[in-house]
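During the second year of the project, the team shifted from modelling isolated chains to modelling whole assemblies. The rationale, set out in the original proposal, was that interfaces cannot be judged from single-chain predictions alone. As a representative example for this report, we include one of the complexes processed in the last quarter. Its constituent sequences, exactly as entered into the pipeline, are reproduced here:
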Amino acid sequence: MLTEGDLKVMKPTIKPLIALLFFVVACLWAVPSANAEFVLNASCSSQIAEAFGREALEAFMQESGVKVKVHIFPSDVCIDRLKNGFSNLAGSTVRISKADRDAGLIEIPMCKDPMSIISHPSCKIKNLSINQVREVFSAHTPNWKSLGGDDLPIVLVIPSKKTGAYQNFMSLVMGPFEIKDDLVATEAFTVVTGVKHIPGSISFIANSIAEQHREVSVINVDGLYPKDAGYPFHQIFYLVIKGEPDPMMKQVINYMISEKAKKRMTARGMTPLVK
Amino acid sequence: MTLRYLSMIIVVASCLWTSGCATVLTVAYPPLEETRHGETKPGSQVAFHYVMSEEKDSLLLQKQPLCSQQIQIIKIKRKQLHGVIPAIVEVPFFGLGIADLVVAGVYTRATVEESDGGYVKGVEIMACGDLMFAPNEELIIQYPTSTDVKHMRTNEKGMIPLNSLEHMPKGENSFNVFVKEEKGVSFVKTFEKNPR
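Output from the structure prediction step:
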């Protein structure tokens, strides 16, 4: 019969054997690693991704063979991810701060896109003045009736505060007014979906996205359609990189401002800015 | 007593049966074919890499040809390790499984055959020439705040005078430089205000 002392003596004889076994198996299974290839990790604002970014990057992947991963986040998060090395390219709808520039970030304005006011397809109002837009989005006008429409409450579908759309709408349109919300959408696609399905709803989004979803109505501002000259609200889409780009990154940048990309932008009502 | 002997016989027989199992199975299986990348060499030229640097009173533009990458494919034929689990099961009894695994492992490494599979086009690009001056190139200067652009041309030495860039639009802190080529536009560099 084994005593406790015997067991203590036996234990150490098994441990090295198991360790040796693991070592042998690990050594035998060791396979030479494959060559590391360039992978483009792009963090993209949902507006840019929906407008043309995802499509353009997929086209770049097909043409060049470079592996591309697109991650969708609000613009601020995209810039943070770039700064912290989680991605090597960011698509942002807001400008980088001075601190970001000092940290070595570089912004390249690619194109500008009008910001559209969109509403549920049943909405009879086709034009609003800038003041009316402000009053609607600050909830000072709660019903379509006071604007000449049906007796229906106005439902404000608003992109979340972190998004470039919200920040740009605030600075371009609202001035001192505060944006109120009935429903907060986290992405451009959810904004469109919300407005499409909720009667009486209204929101704002890049016109290039509104163009792709004809189910929602686009409201003129001061009699101007978003594509008209003189339309007051435009967002700028930026390509952001960290530090001086190497030849491979330059290929990516050059593709995003190439003639092919510009054609895609123009077809969606955007204006290329490198020409 | 009979049961005890019987179980011992089963255990011993199992151990003997599994001894050398990894080696036998490894030898018996057909070799596995796979490929790996070998050396890389430049292929055909695809673009230029532009470099802009500050000289005395001007900015100097230089360019370097970029070529697609040609990657050598090396075909590898080798035996794959098999029978690992029976060998591990056998270890606690005699420890012979370790020797079996080592022999099987040595065999897989000894039977590796490599052959040249030619070159294929890689996804990356690489420099394939020296840096040279870029004379008479059309430049696009873009200001990020106003998004205004202006066009300039490098002289026969690939330079543009700095004083032509000194007057920046109000509120601008930097400017982006692009080269306009036949194929499209090529990003060069971003300069902070007053590159001097």
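Confidence is low (pLDDT under 50) at residues 31-35 of chain A. Chain A touches chain B at residues 14, 17, 20-21, 24-25, 27-29, 32, 34-35, 37-38, 64-67, 95, 98, 101, 106-109, 112, 236, 238, 244-245, 247-248, 250-251, 253-254, 257-259, 273-275 (CB under 8 Å).
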